[in-house]
Design a protein that fits this description.
By secondary structure, the chain is an alpha/beta fold. The protein is built from eleven helices and ten strands. It starts with 9 loop residues before the first strand and ends in an 11-residue tail after the last helix. The protein binds 1,4-dihydronicotinamide adenine dinucleotide. It comes from Panagrellus redivivus.
C-alpha cells in the first residue's frame, strides 16, 4: 500500500519544540507537510518563554529539506498560531494539540496557580487553537484534530488532580468535536502517549525514560491525521512500540421502579455487574437511553394488561 504522504497539507503541532511534538513535526515535514512548529519555549512548569526551542526544530526540518515555520505564542492564543499557518501557507489541515506542562502536587497543597496554569495550557490551549482552525476546516470540508490526553485522566494519578482533570476534559473535547465535525469531514481523536521526555524524566527511572522513545508514539499520530484515516471520536494509546485503544464500558444496569436508597443498596450487585457491559460510540448514548425508556414503558403496559410478557428488564 502507498505510504502516508502529507503533500499540500499544513499541519500545526503545538509544543513542538521538544519531546513528542518535535518527533511529530519532523515526521510530518518528512512526509511532505508544511509544518507550523509552535512552542512557547518555557520550562516544564509553565513559566518563562523563549524562541529557541521552536527555532531549533524548524532548523532541523529545513536542514532535512522540509518546510516549516516557527511560532512562539502560548497555546492560549490559538488565533495567532493559526494565523501563522494562514500567513505563511494559506491554509490549515491538521491540528495536533500537544503542548503541555506539569505542576504535580498533592491536592491539599495545590494552589490556585497550579490549578489554573494546567487548565490554561491543556484545556484552554486545545480549545483556543482548534477553535481558530475550525472555520477553515469547515469551509474546506476537511480537518484532522488530535487532542493529547493521558492515562492520568482515565485512571487518576496521585499528585495530579489538576493535570488528570484537564486530560480527562480533553477526552470529552475530542469526542464532542468528533460529533460536530463529522459532517464536514473533520475527524477528532484523543491520544494517550507514554514517552520519555522532560515531563516524565522526573517521574520515571532513567532507564525507562530512555526506552520510551517519543518516536514510538509518532506513527499513531501520523496515521490518525492522514486523509485516508476515518477514525473519529476514539481514544488511542501508544508507547514503547505498543499501540492500543481505550474504551469506557457501562454495565447493563437495572431499572428500579419507585427507587429508594434502600432498593439501590439491595440491587447493588446487579447495578454494578459488568458481565453484559458495553461501550458506546459518540452519539449512541442518547439512543440507548431511549431504548431503556421504551422498554420500561412496554414493561409497564404488559404489567397493566396482565400479559406477563417479559421485556428483559426486571423490576426491583
Ligand atoms: P515536553 O515537555 O517534552 O513537551 C511539551 C512542549 O510543550 C514543550 O516543548 C513546551 O515548551 C511546550 N509548551 C508548554 N506550554 C506551552 C504553551 N503554553 N504554549 C506552547 N507550547 C507550550 O513533554 P511531552 O512528554 O513531549 O508532552 C507532550 C504532551 O503529551 C503533553 O500534552 C503531555 O501532557 C502529554 N503526555 C505525555 C506523556 C508522556 O509520557 N510523555 C504521558 C501523557 C501525556
Amino acid at each position: 500500500m502507498a505510504s502516508l504522504r502529507f503533500d499540500g497539507r499544513v499541519v500545526i503541532v503545538t509544543g513542538a519544540g521538544g519531546g513528542l511534538g518535535r518527533t511529530y513535526a519532523l515526521e510530518y515535514a518528512k512526509r511532505g507537510a508544511k509544518v507550523v512548529v509552535n512552542d512557547l519555549g518555557g520550562d516544564a512548569h509553565g513559566t518563562a518563554a523563549s524562541t529557541s526551542m521552536a527555532d531549533k526544530v524548524v532548523a532541523e526540518i529545513k536542514k532535512a529539506g522540509g518546510e516549516a515555520v516557527a511560532n512562539y505564542d502560548s497555546v492560549e492564543f490559538g488565533d495567532k498560531i493559526v494565523q501563522t499557518a494562514i500567513n505563511n501557507y494559506g491554509r490549515v489541515d491538521v491540528v495536533v494539540n500537544n503542548a503541555g506542562i506539569l505542576r504535580d502536587v498533592s491536592f491539599g497543597n495545590m494552589t490556585d496557580l497550579d490549578w489554573d496554569l494546567i487548565a490554561t495550557v491543556h484545556l484552554k490551549g486545545a480549545y483556543s487553537v482548534t477553535k481558530a482552525a475550525w472555520p477553515y476546516f469547515r469551509k474546506q470540508k476537511y480537518g484532522r484534530v488530535i487532542s493529547t490526553a493521558s492515562n492520568s485522566g482515565v485512571y487518576g494519578s496521585f499528585g495530579q488532580a489538576n493535570y488528570s482533570t484537564a486530560k480527562a476534559g480533553l477526552i470529552g473535547f475530542a469526542k464532542t468535536l468528533a460529533l460536530e465535525g463529522q459532517k464536514y469531514n473533520i475527524f477528532s481523536n484523543a491520544l494517550i502517549p507514554t514517552a520519555g521526555s522532560r515531563l516524565t524524566e522526573t517521574i520515571l527511572p532513567s532507564e525507562i525514560v530512555a526506552a520510551l522513545k517519543p518516536e514510538y508514539v509518532m506513527p499513531l499520530v501520523i496515521f490518525l491525521t492522514h486523509e485516508s484515516c476515518t477514525e473519529n471520536g476514539q481514544i488511542y494509546e501508544a508507547g514503547a512500540e505498543w499501540f492500543g485503544t481505550v474504551e469506557f464500558y457501562r454495565s447493563a444496569g437495572k431499572i428500579i421502579e419507585n427507587a429508594t436508597p434502600e432498593k439501590v443498596r439491595d440491587n447493588w450487585a446487579q447495578i454494578t455487574d459488568m458481565k453484559n457491559a458495553r461501550n458506546f460510540k459518540p452519539g449512541e448514548i442518547m439512543e440507548y437511553m431511549m431504548t431503556i425508556m421504551s422498554e420500561k414503558e412496554s414493561k409497564k403496559e404488559n404489567t397493566s394488561s396482565g400479559s406477563g410478557a417479559s421485556s428483559g428488564l426486571e423490576s426491583a
